[in-house]
Amino acid sequence: MKRGAQLGPLLGVVLLAASGARGDETLVRLHEASELVTVRASCSGCHSLDYIEMNAPFLKRAGWEAEVRKMMKAYGAPVPEQDVAAIVDYLTLYYGGE
User: Fold this and answer.
1) Which CATH number belongs to the domain containing residue 41 in this structure?
2) 64 with 57: CB under 8 angstroms?
3) Residue 55 lies in a domain
């Protein structure tokens, strides 16, 4: 294999990174509300906040609560029990609903 052929995939990765394809949370714009501080603190430590918008079409209140509890139990997310209701209320109101 020619040396130039090996550089093709590497060059593609470098160009993609340079083009701004990165996990920049400043680009994720969630609905402003008092609970957003709690949502950011509870969720963004483990994954991008764009997961909220990606899952919004599929989840209603029960689904959001199941997701929050799954993150706590299965993945060990450090979410205090007293914050669960505020997080679920926020997610349901702005990214789900009944």
Assistant:
1) 1.10.760.10
2) no
3) yes
Q: Do 84 and 65 form a contact (C-beta atoms < 8 A)?
A: yes
Rounded percentage of the chain residues whose pLDDT exceeds 70: 71
**Cα–Cα distances in angstroms (integers) from residue 29 to residues 5, 11, 25, 77, 96, in the given order:** 40, 31, 8, 22, 16
From the CB of residue 26, how many other CB atoms can be counted at a distance below 10 Å? 5
Residue 76 is part of which domain span? 31-98
pTM tops 0.85, yes or no: no
Q: Which of 28, 49, 76 is CA-nearest to residue 87?
A: 49
Considering the domain boundaries, does residue 24 fall inside one? Answer: no
